[in-house]
Amino acid sequence: MKPMVASLFMLLFAGGPAWAGGGRATIESIEILIATSFPVQVFAVLRGYLGDGCTKISGITARGPLANRFHIEITTERPAGALCTLALVPFEHNVPLAVHGLPKGDYEAVAGGVSASFTLRQDNKLQ
């Protein structure tokens, strides 16, 4: 196979059926945004990338807090048999964290092995 033809073959068919279905997005960073309202609203800004041009985000879930930690997961899907470029596709999503009613304290958001911490300086509930 000529080098250019081999490269095109790898570009179109790399991964094959093993990539079909769901997976998880790669998370590169988490930034915490705290709104100046009361009760306070907290958002985790997740930045990362998808593995190719066909992969799409299929769901975002935020669970917690469990032991003062929120677990965030971004799931993906890729059509079976799709012919895709292997270019990474960046994304950024704001994920609201369920902080209403929480006591003051230190908390952490975790996604894909990356984490960020934040502090609620007072109980986050209306009196």
Task: Please tally the helical runs, counting DSSP H or I stretches of 4 or more residues.
Answer: 1
Poorly predicted regions are: 1-19
Number of strands: 8
- How far the N terminus sits from the C terminus, by CA atoms, comes to 73 Å
Number of separate domains: 1
| Helix-strand pattern | HEEEEEEEE
> Quick one: overall form?
elongated
Oligomer: single chain
Describe the largest sheet: 5 strands, mixed
Q: Helicity level, as a percent range? A: under 10%
Strand content: over 45%
What structural class do you assign from the helix and strand content? mainly beta
* Overall pLDDT metric: 86
Calculate Rg over CA atoms.
19 Å
Q: How would you describe this protein?
A:
The structure is a single chain. The chain has 127 residues and is mainly beta. The longest helix is centred in the first third of the chain and has 11 residues, at 3-13. The protein has one domain (3-120). Mean pLDDT is 86; it is low at 1-19. The protein is built from one helix and eight strands; from the N terminus they run H-E-E-E-E-E-E-E-E. Strand 4 and strand 5 (69-78) form a beta hairpin.
Descriptive key words:
127 residues, 8 strands, five-stranded mixed beta sheet
Concise overview:
With 127 residues, this protein is mostly beta strands.
How are the secondary structure elements laid out?
Blueprint: H1 3-13, E1 21-24, E2 26-34, E3 42-50, E4 56-66, E5 69-78, E6 89-97, E7 105-111, E8 114-120
Parallel strand pairs: 5-7
Antiparallel strand pairs: 1-5, 2-3, 3-6, 4-5, 7-8
